[in-house]
Amino acid sequence: MFMNGMLTSKEFLEELVRYGIDFFCGVPDSVIRKLIELIPETGIPYVNATCEDVAVGVCVGAYLAGKKPCLLMQNSGLGNASDAIVTLNTLYKIPLLFIISWRGFDGRDEVQHLDWGKITLPFLDTIGLPYMLISKDNYKENINKAMSMINNQNISVALVVRRGYLDEKR
Amino acid sequence: MRRDEAIKAVCKAVDIKSVLIFANGKISREGYLKCDSKRNFYMLASMGKASSIGLGVALSKPNRTVIVFDGDGNILMNLDNLAMIGYFQPRNLIHIVLDNETYATTGWQETLSEKIELDKVAKSCGYNNVFNVETEKEIITAVEECYRLDGPHFILIKIDKEEIKGTKIIPYSPPEIKDRFMESLRGDGE
């Protein structure tokens, strides 16, 4: 599974910042907990959102004001976020970078995550949000590709993070 | 006072550097009718998210005043926005709720707002200044007061259950609405 070991949250975050991400907002999940905990060290604010749909709205506002926002959330948050994704990001061509933890990936998780685990990728296809599965081997290439779609084509992209592919503990 | 008259009264008091976000439905359409400008962002859908967008803009451009025109149905759909705004304290955000206690755009069905004191909810969420106004003069005075004080501000305007006839669909495409709004926010530093 891991050719070069696990991606660290620190390298992942540094690469995002290198590509100009300057606004973070989201709702936490344990898979991305360390990533979120490290954000203050970059000097970039993290806006702690009440719900994923509000987080989409806040990131859209930041984008309109010239920021390059990144929205972090668990896959189950796609249910809450989907109307805003379809009617703001898609309708207005307002591109955001999403980082989505894929709980229930491969049927290996607590029972409450398994149903969302199964439908996560088809759901992303249905709402028209392109995604890339992130690993230590491909994260640089995929962030580059995602930011190019965002910057050049106004298309939002989701970087999907599976449990076990990103270090979670401090 | 009708909704369009309340919007017009607010626009009279708004300074030239402010940007305006209009919630979906009749609020956007009447905003277009009464005070169209490239600094207006017209929401066409995404009900409940006008003040989320306003918060994102306000935090990212602290030197520009952000006016959000919301409805009672809109704000009740995402009351958590009030908690977000109260928590993050954008001093440059003026949140206006045009309250007719109905979902007017979809046919005047009742909302819950008749029994919910939205101004008190905003106050307890941490908005610094909360106004409850009805006349044109009161609206203008409240907006002028907001420019003098640190926000976040909340202006509740109870409006009539009748409205102007013949509002049109906004003629700009969604990407055009985005582009001209972004253009109006560009080049003014942080």
- Average of the residue pLDDT scores of chain A: 96
What share of the residues of chain B does DSSP label as strand, in percent?
15-25%
Tell me the helix content of chain A.
40-55%
Question: Strand order, biggest sheet of chain B?
Answer: 2-1-3-4-8-7
CATH H level of chain B: which superfamily?
Answer: Thiamin diphosphate (ThDP)-binding fold, Pyr/PP domains
Overall tally of domains of chain A: 1
Largest contact between chains: A-B, 33 and 35 residues
CATH class of chain B: Alpha Beta
Count the helices of chain A. How many?
6
Distance between the termini of chain A: 23 Å
Q: Describe it for me?
A:
Chain A is an alpha/beta fold and 170 residues long. Chain A has a single domain, classed as Thiamin diphosphate (ThDP)-binding fold, Pyr/PP domains (Rossmann fold, 3-Layer(aba) Sandwich), CATH 3.40.50. Chain A has six helices and six strands. Chain A has helices at 9-18, 33-38, 52-64, 77-90, 114-126, 139-153; strands at 23-26, 46-48, 69-74, 97-102, 131-133, 157-162. In chain A, strands 2-1-3-4-6-5 form a six-stranded parallel beta sheet, sandwiched between helices. Chain A is globular. Chain B is of the alpha/beta class and 190 residues long. Chain B has one domain: Thiamin diphosphate (ThDP)-binding fold, Pyr/PP domains (Rossmann fold), CATH 3.40.50. Chain B has eight helices and eight strands; from the N terminus they run H-E-H-E-H-E-H-H-E-E-E-H-E-H-E-H. Chain B has a six-stranded parallel beta sheet with strand order 2-1-3-4-8-7, with helices on both faces. The radius of gyration of chain B is 15 Å and the shape is globular. Chain A binds chain B through residues 23, 25, 45, 47-51, 53-67, 69, 83-84, 87-88, 91-94, 154, and chain B through 21, 41, 44-46, 48-61, 64, 78, 80-81, 83-84, 87-88, 174-175, 177-178, 181-182, 185-186.
